[in-house]
Amino acid sequence: MGTAIGLVAGHFGRAADVTLMRVTDSFFAFPELIAAVTIAGVLGPSTTNMVLALILVGWMKFTRLVRSLSVDLAHRDFVVQARLNGLPSYRILWRHILPNIGPSLLVLWTNAWSRTILSISGLSFLGFGVQPPNAEWGAMLLDGKAYMQTAPFLMIFPGLAILVAVLSINLTGDRLRDLLGSNGVAAD
After folding, report:
1. At what angle do helices 2-11 and 60-74 cross, to 10 degrees?
2. Is the CB of residue 172 less than 8 Å from the CB of residue 110?
3. Can you tell me the distance from the alpha carbon of 121 to that of 129, in angstroms, rounded to the nearest whole number?
4. What is the pLDDT of residues 101-125, one digit of tens each?
5. Can you tell me the distance from the alpha carbon of 166 to that of 157, in angstroms, rounded to the nearest whole number?
6. Is 127 left (phi over 0), alpha (psi -120 to 50) or beta?
7. How far is C-alpha 107 from the chain's CA centre?
8. Is there a contact between 155 and 142 (Cβ–Cβ < 8 Å)?
């Protein structure tokens, strides 16, 4: 969702850019987790509502990144040449812009993935996410809270699973960033 909005904002002129970026900025005004808790609370506790809440609060970073990279790429020689050759906008976006912003999107995606794991666990721990009988680390932490004094391993192991998953995804993202270069945008 954020990628599509960012492409439209960065490629289709000033009016689209200003309008879409103002909407994006207005979504940035609310803290992510508080907005997700509010949305999930209004919609009710379920996996579907939790996913919808996380989508509604997580697309803005992708929009900003894609928009800024598309604006930068729009002035590169290979994009100007494609435009002069009469290629339609959708082909320019698909064949020239997207492949060049892909590495940066991949790095941002790994970061968003680890934050999503933390958000899902947090929402489930608060009772707004995955509901029993489905298993989820945050829900396991909530269930183990009642037995913290007598059986601390009920909280230790789900917490360690969250830690290992988030840490390994973040390290993978750092490694991808190093392999793909600092900004991921290919040169002319």
Report:
1. 30
2. yes
3. 8
4. 988 888 889 989 999 999 999 999 9
5. 14
6. left
7. 10
8. no
Spatial neighbors of 106 by CB under 8 A, at least 6 apart, are 176, 180, 184
Q: Which domains does the chain have, with CATH numbers?
A: 2-180 (1.10.3720.10)
Structural tokens at position 56: 């509604």
133-171 pLDDT, tens digit each: 888 999 999 999 999 999 999 999 999 999 999 999 999
Q: Which residues, at least 6 apart from 44, have a Cβ–Cβ distance to it below 8 Å?
A: none
> For the segment 53-82, what is each residue's pLDDT rounded down to a tens digit?
998 888 999 999 999 999 888 888 988 888
Cis peptide before 133 (omega within 30 of 0): yes
Q: Which residue carries 């900003």 as its tokens?
A: 64
Structure tokens at 120: 């899902």
Q: Which two tokens stand for residue 146?
A: 């009642």
- Whats the size of the chain, residue-wise? 188
